[in-house]
């Protein structure tokens, strides 16, 4: 059975970037993803670009899921955004707390993602399918693994329909997290977020910032390739293919690709997995 796929973009910053993303989207559409999601910058800087990208995806006939974060925002502003999406026929939202850009002092009226989910339900009832974030290796600011799990449970209790995880390279982390959720009676689908590996140095920087672990054996091997980008790409493809195979064999309900606005790595991965096209 083909697993449900979804693919995440960030909003392009320039007209050239938007042109490039149109081509990327066309190529990725052969995978027949359930939806394309578009990230949202807390603090206001990229928000219009999120709208533009979402509406364009929708006008091409694909399901688009905007991300929406609440940090640094007001209820009134979030209400406006929700109504704009609802009026445009958007049916799915990825609801997040977000991270404040440095220098932004106002924390916002909703403090955590569970409050945002609650607000979306209060404002728009069952209109939206709400996705939330989950962290198999735990969120870096969580006081403890237990607290993070309970925070996830609150998001589901507030009305989230399903979850997408932060990316990870250790399948046991996902399987353990799923068992812990089972024990708490959390039954929503938890879709693993998959980050294809293209550049090790970029991945290492990014992973440190968001608390995703690159296992030592992988790190050592990537480092041994130096600047040999072909070997990095080939090894990255092997590792991530193996990860996806294990997750799907263990019953993961789908895969969400952090494609970084590139089609090649995600297409190569799906070809190796024998899914899509
Ligand atoms: P929350 O679920 O609110 O959790 C945040 C932290 O607070 C956790 O440590 C949690 O344990 C803790 N916590 C929760 N409730 C409480 C409480 N009551 N008391 C004390 N602590 C509490 N960021 C963006 O800016 N834009 C995006 O588009 C975006 N898309 C993302 C998509 C996915 C699939 C994922 C996994 C992440 C995404 N992020 C995005 C990053 C995300 O915004 C950050 O990880 C952010 O720091 C946490 O958001 P959250 O929704 O998980 O927050």
Topology overview:
Elements: E1 4-9, H1 15-28, E2 35-38, H2 47-59, E3 64-69, H3 75-87, E4 92-96, H4 113-124, E5 129-134, H5 145-157, E6 162-167, H6 171-183, E7 190-194, H7 200-210, H8 216-224, H9 229-249, E8 254-258, H10 264-273
Parallel strand pairs: 1-2, 1-8, 2-3, 3-4, 4-5, 5-6, 6-7, 7-8
Helix pairs in contact: 3-4, 4-5, 9-10
Largest sheet strand order: 1-2-3-4-5-6-7-8
Stated plainly, the CATH topology is called: TIM Barrel
Rounded to the nearest angstrom, the distance between the terminal CA atoms is: 13 Å
So, CATH architecture?
Alpha-Beta Barrel
Name of the level-1 CATH class? Alpha Beta
Strand content: 15-25%
Number of domains: 1
* Count of DSSP strands: 8
């Amino acid at each position: 059975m083909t697993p449900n796929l979804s693919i995440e973009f960030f909003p392009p910053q320039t007209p050239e970037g938007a042109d490039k993303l149109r081509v990327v989207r066309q190529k990725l559409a052969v995978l027949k993803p359930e939806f394309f999601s578009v990230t949202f910058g807390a603090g206001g800087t990229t928000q219009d670009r999120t709208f533009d990208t979402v509406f364009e995806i929708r006008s091409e006939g694909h399901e688009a899921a905007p991300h929406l974060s609440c940090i640094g925002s007001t209820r009134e502003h979030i209400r406006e955004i929700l109504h704009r999406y609802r009026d445009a026929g958007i049916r799915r939202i990825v609801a997040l707390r977000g991270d404040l850009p440095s220098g932004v002092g106002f924390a916002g009226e909703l403090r955590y993602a569970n409050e945002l989910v609650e607000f979306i339900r209060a404002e728009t009832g069952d209109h939206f399918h709400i996705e939330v974030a989950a962290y198999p290796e735990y969120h870096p600011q969580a006081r403890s693994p237990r607290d993070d799990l309970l925070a996830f449970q609150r998001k589901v209790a507030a009305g989230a329909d399903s979850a997408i995880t932060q990316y990870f390279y250790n399948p046991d982390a996902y399987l353990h997290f799923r068992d812990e959720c089972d024990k708490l009676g959390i039954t929503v689908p938890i879709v693993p977020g998959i980050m294809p590996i293209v550049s090790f140095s970029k991945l290492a920087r990014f992973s440190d910032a968001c608390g995703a672990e690159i296992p030592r054996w992988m790190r050592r091997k990537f480092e041994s390739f130096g600047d040999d980008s072909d070997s990095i790409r080939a090894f990255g493809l092997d590792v991530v293919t193996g990860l996806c195979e294990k997750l799907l064999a263990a019953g993961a309900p789908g895969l969400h690709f952090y494609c970084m606005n590139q089609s090649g790595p995600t297409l190569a991965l799906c070809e190796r997995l024998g899914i899509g096209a």
